[in-house]
Amino acid sequence: MRIGLITPDPGHPLLAATAALLGERHEVEVLHPSAGEASVGAPADVYLLKARTPAALELARALERRGAPVVNSAAATEGCQDRTGMASLALGAGLPFAATRTFGSLALLESAAGLEWPLVVKSRRSRKDDLVARLDGPGRLRELAPRWGGEPVVTQAFAPNSGWDHKLWVVGDEVFAALRRSELAAGTGEPAPGGGRLPDGWAELALRVGRVFGLDVYGVDVIATEGGGPLIVDVNAFPGIRGQAGAPEALAALTLRRAARDRAVGR
């Protein structure tokens, strides 16, 4: 089989390890997102989309129009970039997602009625190094304005929790998990409580997220609220999944399954 990687960074540990596994029996080729459709001859049997730029999404759409399966699809990848749409889809499907409000700018947030502090403010458009901050009152908005004042933002009520984020990563039907100290919490040196064991039912919740969002490779950020229940605060298409034993093997197996499935239906 021919397998394409749409990425600007083929040396990323997850992709590199997956490519090494696949390359033992199959042909693996790298497409830089800026290459464009004109650089592609006959489509590969399957593509892995590890990029979120407009150019990467357009390339993925072009390949999909030509009948090539893309993991994740361009539509699903793009859907995870808009936190307003993300919240609407999740809440509409009954997922325990943080209630989210959207504002055209930080200035509009400062003058909004009905805000309850503390709250979490995030860039509406999810991307690397975007805005994610806890605000204990309106005064912090002025600190953020020089860098973030010109872009739309969303807010989520701050849910009291342990200060640890459950990072759930899904590859096909396999769930990987770890605890990470929240960037919104004070203190970073203490070890993760309980060894990072995933609470009962949370793996099934992560798989349900994939069905709702149409994702095959994705991350779900979850916090345990004071009552113990899960609260989803973010969903990411094709995250790094670094340091998770078995993740490259799961991704390689998923890649081959998708290619075989499309062959079976006569692509």
Automatic annotation (TrEMBL):
It comes from the Bacteria. Residues 87-265 form the ATP-grasp domain. SUPFAM superfamilies: Glutathione synthetase ATP-binding domain-like. Keywords: ATP-binding, Ligase, Nucleotide-binding. GO terms for molecular function: ligase activity. InterPro entries: ATP-grasp (IPR011761), ATP-grasp_RimK-type (IPR013651). Gene3D superfamilies: ATP-grasp fold, B domain. Pfam families: RimK. This is Alpha-L-glutamate ligase.
